[in-house]
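Deliverable D5.2: sample structural annotation.
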Amino acid sequence: MVSKSDYGLGPLYHGTTEHIAKNILEEGLRIIGEAPIWLSYSREEAFENAQEKQGSPTVLEVNLPEDWLLERAEAGSYLSWKPIPVEYIKMTSNPTTATGTCYPDAY
C-alpha cells in the first residue's frame, strides 16, 4: 500500500457513465462486493475505461487526502479498498473535447 504523498501525483480519475456519475456525486464511490475502486493516473485512461461501459462515458476527478492508502495496480492505475466520500470527487473535462465539462443530465 502507498499513500498519496508516496505516489506523488495530483488528482486521480475514475471512468464511469453519466447515469452512475450522478449517483457517485450524491453518495461517493463505494466498494461493490469484493471489488476495489479503480483509479487512473490519466484522465484519458479513465475515459477509455468508461467507454467500455454501457452508457455515455464520463470521467470523475478524485482528490484524496495525503494519507489515503492505495494499492498500485497495473501501470497508471491504483486501487482503493475503502469507500471514497463525495467531498473528494468532482466532474472533470471530457478528454475528447477541448472545452466543456461532462455533467450528468440531472445537473
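Annotation notes: The first strand starts at residue 2 and ends at 3. DSSP finds three helices and seven strands in the chain.
The annotation will be released with the project's public dataset once the embargo ends.
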